Amino acid sequence: MTPSPANGSAPEVSELEAQYPNLALTLLDSIPSSVLILDRGLRVALASRNFLEKGRRTVENTVGRRLDEVFPTAILNYTQLDQRARAVLQNGRPYDGGKMTYRAPGVPQRVYYYNLAPLRQDNLVTGVLVLMHDVTEQERLAEDVRRIERHLASVVESANDLVVSMEPDGRIMTWNQAAERVSGVHVAEVTGRDLADLCAPEDQEAMRALLRAVQRGEPSKVRELGLCTAGGKTIPVAWACSPMWDDHGRVSALVAVGRDLTERRLLEAQLFQSAKMASLGVMAGGIAHQLRNPLGAASAAAQLLLRDPHNLELSEQCAQKIYEGIKRASAIIESLLRFARPDGGRFGTVVVNEIVADTVAMMRHQANLNTVQVTTELAADLPPVFADPSALQQAFTNLFLNACQAMPAGGHLTVRTQQLPGSGQMRVDFQDTGCGIPAENLAKVFDPFFTTRPVGQGGVGLGLTIAYSILQQHGGSIQVQSTVGAGSMFTVVLDARLPAA
Amino acid sequence: METPPTALVTDDEVDLAWAMQQTLVLDGWRVVVAHTGAAAIALAAVEPIRIAFVDAKLPDMDGLDVAQRIVALQPATMMVLISGYYYSEDQAVQETLRHGLFASFISKPFDLAEISALAQGSLAR
User: Fold this and answer.
1) For testing the chain A interface, which of B14, B16, B26 should be mutated: the one with the most A CBs within 10 Å?
2) Which of chain A's residues have a Cβ under 8 Å away from the Cβ of B108?
3) What is the dihedral of CA A160, A162, A167, A172, to 10 degrees?
4) CATH assignment of A31-139, given 3.10.450.50, 3.30.450.20, 3.30.565.10, 3.40.228.10?
5) Three-state DSSP class for B125?
6) Within 13 Å and on the Cβ side, how many CA atoms surround B30?
7) Percent of chain A clearing pLDDT 90 (strictly above)
8) What is the residue extent of each domain of chain A?
9) Mean pLDDT (whole number) for B94-117
10) Number of residue pairs across A and B with CB atoms under 8 Å?
């Protein structure tokens, strides 16, 4: 124990000194600090071994010397050590805290923290104790810490993704530059606010639920939720949220990383449109043939009418058949136009059975070419769904085509709609009697560019991917069951609930 | 009065089959109509058919198979293949014509006058 001057009691120290005569000097030389004692003339009366070693000095060129003979002039000018020591001698108050950078000849620069304390004899200040602590290492560590902090901060700031950190209750603490750029909202405007409140109105509850789950430390999946911008738009963002844990295993903060999906959505839309045009190409032959039938019937009826115009009963029948043929041809053209329309997320109330019927009508020629018999089993009284009809037809068309391609030697395709009781959902099955999918490929059929057909024979492997993606955008799902040699069944599940008006 | 000869019209396109039927009736034929392959074969089993018009793609069977079955029942029947899918230069069509299964081929759409002319021709065989 080293009694400090402030609370040390004289009798104890003198007892110790009596017992250990060299205590003071031993202490001076043992502590890892440099110690100088200056006399009233500011000459060095005593220098600890540590001081001499660090300064590469000897007792001879130090003890009895003035401060300006011991320290370089530049350091004295900078620290004003002599003036401060003189002040301590005069007013008897210690000087606490100053930093000194000192480089002794031949050694790297060190940083010292020093303080000055008056030494008294009978209430008279007779000397100044100079204590110098080498804080070079601490300084270096502190600088390292600051540099790492700056680096981490700039990693977060320069990230292309939105990085938001929150209190465990969801109030925003940090909001990086990407978040500012995407949202157009400055960090000062969001600090302390709830991230959920910045989401699109229809997504706020989902964000709250997501953050609550993260607060409980539950694993969470990436969610696509809209973020409101300063300009009043909604940006699609994929959010991945995670908790930050403290040393006691408690959630100390929440982190949300969001990716702006705007560009991806644009690319997807382009991909959809080109895939749609590609399937239109496949369908074009079928559409022509489909038009040929009603036009042929109308034409034949007209020829018959011309041949025997005075047969009233026949004329009437002919006119009726001409009219029906034209109506059927118009219906085919209408459904073609509905399909070809570029989709801009035109969601509305949609009757799934109609979309299925349209799809089957457009694809029947393709089925005929593959000698595939098509049966539809459409459940009556299906509730309407909230969907983009053009996208949904695209998905069904891709599933239809996929089924036809799975039956190169012909077969049977059943398209079935069904309500799932009690779940508010419906399913649409595309069941084929084709080659089936081996178990090892089942997980891959929805992957982009996965195809088992040779290059140049049909698709590029995007049909099922696009169907999958469309169903995801509809909040639905798509699954496949398959038995090699017996056939496959793709099942689409759609939510039949309409959004609140 | 002589019994008129019988023609068989086989097409799943109901209105087109009707127009062919009316044309042949106006020409003085007795006409039986089938919309499926099975119905056509059943008619050929009971009716003496002079000429049969068969669509290449029927909902239940391939038109070529139907024609073969009819010829097996009535070798003297004149077979005419109708199709919206094939063209007269298609290899499959050329094959069937060369093998003598079909005497003629009509691609849709066609003039009803062609039907009349072909039916008339079958009477001279």
Assistant:
1) B16
2) 292-293, 296
3) 120
4) 3.30.450.20
5) coil
6) 9
7) 40
8) 31-139, 157-260, 265-495
9) 86
10) 57
- B109·A295 Cβ contact <8 A: yes
- Cβ <8 Å between B19 and A303: yes
Q: A307-336, pLDDT tens digit by residue?
A: 988 999 999 999 999 999 998 888 878 777
Query: Out of 3.30.420.40, 3.40.50.2300, 1.10.8.60, 3.20.140.10, which CATH number does the structure's domain B6-123 have?
Result: 3.40.50.2300
Among candidates A125, A70, A118, A60, which has minimal Cα distance to A94?
Answer: A118
Give the separation between CA A188 and CA A173, rounded to whole angstroms.
10
Nearest Cβ partner for B19 among A294, A297, A371: A297
Q: Chain B contacts of A368, Cβ < 8 Å?
A: 57, 85
Give the tens place of pLDDT for each residue, A369-412.
778 999 999 998 888 898 888 888 889 998 998 898 889 888 99
Query: Do B112 and A300 lie within an 8 Å CB cutoff?
Result: yes
Whether A31-139 and A157-260 share one fold: the answer is: yes
- Interchain pair A307, B112: CB under 8 A: yes
Confirm or reject contact between B28 and chain A (CB < 8 A). Answer: no
Structure token digits, residue A491: 């099942």
Of A501, A497, A500, give the one whose Cα is nearest residue A383: A497
**Tokens standing for A152?**
């981490």
- The CA distance from A464 to A397, in Å, is 10
In the stretch 36-65 of chain B, residues with CB closer than 8 A to chain A read 57, 59, 62
Peptide bond just before B59 cis, omega within 30 deg: no
Our CA-based measurement puts residue B1 at a distance from the nearest CA of chain A, in whole angstroms, of 24
Contact between A324 and B22 using a beta-carbon 8 Å cutoff? no
The answer to whether A488 and A432 have CB atoms below 8 angstroms apart is: yes
For residue B109, cis peptide bond before it (omega within 30 degrees of 0): yes
Q: Work out the pLDDT band at A102, boundaries 50, 70, 90.
A: confident
Interface test with B, best of A289, A290, A291, A293 (most B CBs within 10 A): A293
Strands A425-432, A234-245: pairing kind: unpaired
> Does ipTM exceed 0.90?
no
Query: Is A289 in contact with B20 (Cβ distance < 8 A)?
Result: no
CATH superfamily of A157-260: PAS domain (3.30.450.20)
Question: Which CATH number does the domain A265-495 belong to among 3.40.1190.20, 3.30.565.10, 3.90.850.10, 1.10.760.10?
Answer: 3.30.565.10
∠ Cα B97 B101 B105 (to 5°): 45
Q: What is the pTM of this model?
A: 0.50
List, for residues B29-46, the tens digit of each pLDDT value: 999 999 999 999 999 999
Q: Which residue of A292, A304, A368 is in closest CB contact with B109?
A: A292
Residues 89-118 of chain B with CB under 8 A from chain A are: 108-113
